[in-house]
Amino acid sequence: MAKLLLDENFPAPAARLLGVSGLDVLAVRDACPGWVDEEVLALAVAEQRWIITFDRDYGDLVFKMNFTPPPAIVLLREPHYRPAEPANWVLSLLVQPEIYLGRFVVFTRDKVRARPMLKAL
């Protein structure tokens, strides 16, 4: 099962729901508050965790600045939601996690797009 790293902007109620679902969840707000995106990305790579975020900056780090990608990055693109709702979105993606390995995933209520993340040689 995928190990998750929840970015600081991920709502606490949703983080709690993911934690009690039996997933290996690490929340930036608890483990390393205030870390910059580069530090969070490095932790995700080192621990082989998926980054779950509302922050588009991880795409810039991987695609434009050529940082080593983690197993997956999930960008949640929903501006309005109930605090626990993002947990259900993540759980829906984890029904078939192999589809999203090595990908930058953009999730909206209407669709899911996934773009390969390739480390340049």
Task: Write structural notes for this entry.
- With 121 residues, the protein is α/β, with parallel strands linked by helices.
- It has one domain.
- The chain is built from 5 helices and 6 strands.
- It has a 6-stranded mixed sheet with strand order 2-1-3-4-5-6, sandwiched between helices.
- Helix 1 links the parallel strand 1 and strand 2.
- The model has no long low-confidence stretch (mean pLDDT 95).
Descriptors for this entry?
121 residues, alpha/beta, 5 helices, six-stranded mixed beta sheet, globular
Write a brief structural summary:
By secondary structure, this protein is α/β, with parallel strands linked by helices.
| Total beta strand runs | 6
Q: What share of residues is helical?
A: 25-40%
Number of helices in the DSSP assignment: 5
From N to C, what is the helix and strand string?
A: EHEHHEHEHEE
How much of the polypeptide forms β-strand, as a percent range? 15-25%
Give the count of structural domains: 1
Shape, please?
globular
Can you list the strand order of the major beta sheet? 2-1-3-4-5-6
Largest sheet: 6 strands, mixed
User: Averaging pLDDT over every residue, what do you get?
Assistant: 95
Judged by helices, strands and strand pairing, the structural class is alpha/beta
Low-confidence stretches: none
As a whole number of angstroms, the C-alpha radius of gyration is 13 Å
Q: Please give the alpha-carbon distance between the first and last residues.
A: 28 Å
